[in-house]
Amino acid sequence: MKTLLNIICSKKVKYSLILIILLIIYIFISAFFYVTAISNDLENSIFRLHVIANSDSVEDQNLKYIVRDNLISYMNELSANAKTKEEAIEIAKEHTDEFYNIAKKTIIDNGYNYDVTVEIGNFDFPTKHYGDISIPAGYYDALRVKIGSAQGQNWWCVMFPPLCFVNVTSGIVPDESKELLESQLNEEEYNIISNKDSSEIKFKFKLIELLQNTNILTAKK
To answer: How many domains does one find in the chain?
Structure first.
């Protein structure tokens, strides 16, 4: 009798363990596909600017910000009427030489003779906060500008929708920028990046960060 009970209990334990393992696998797969869908939509809706300084010296870092400001000013003029990321990228591609010339002239005007590399591609970015908007880590299309040896700290922002001019210390993104960003995303995706004071939204954002930072999601396009 005891042997029979042991067998029954043993089977129950095994079945319970199998069910728990299957549940964990199901939760992980569901989370994976959820995060993949959200990440892909965000990456497909955002075009970024990435400026890398020659070095970490105070002078090179200050030069990086001057180059950045001039590039942002030019891009904002060019893409003022862009309605999609694809339009913004196409505009940037058509004016790559102008971006190079602006960066190079800025460098020379400030007393340096560093070379500049300008490229448009798909690059890895960490999580970044723009006032009350947060963009999770991931691979995003970007205009990358490398100054000199490009060994210094880098700076990045969102060129489309236009968030580059946002003063992050104010914690406020202009309504028109939010509206444009919201039009590119569904309600769920927009809520996740807009710093909603909700434990569910914060958990989803952290989940995206976790899977991105552990390289579980597909890497570079």
So the answer is: 1
The amino acid at 156: W
Cβ atoms < 10 Å from Cβ of 103: 25
DSSP one-letter string for 41-94: HHHTT-EEEEEE-S-SSHHHHHHHHHHHHHHHHHHHHHTTT--SHHHHHHHHHH
Residue 155 resides in a domain: yes
pLDDT score at 136? 81
Residue 158 has what DSSP assignment?
Answer: E
Summary mean pLDDT of the chain: 77
Number of H helices, E strands in the chain: 7, 6
Please indicate, yes or no, if residue 15 is contained in any of the structural domains.
no
Is 7 domain-assigned? Answer: no
pLDDT of residue 99: 93
**Which segment of 103-107, 147-151, 182-186, 198-202 scores lowest on mean pLDDT?**
198-202
What are the contacts of 134-137 at 24+ separation with CB within 8 A? 134/193, 134/194, 134/195, 134/205, 135/42, 135/46, 135/193, 136/39, 136/42, 136/192, 136/193, 136/205, 136/208, 136/209, 136/212, 137/208, 137/209, 137/212, 137/213
Encoded tokens for 39: 């990440």
Residue 210 resides in a domain: no
pTM passes above 0.90? no
The pLDDT assigned to 4 comes to 47
Distance (Å, whole) CA 147 – CA 57 = 13
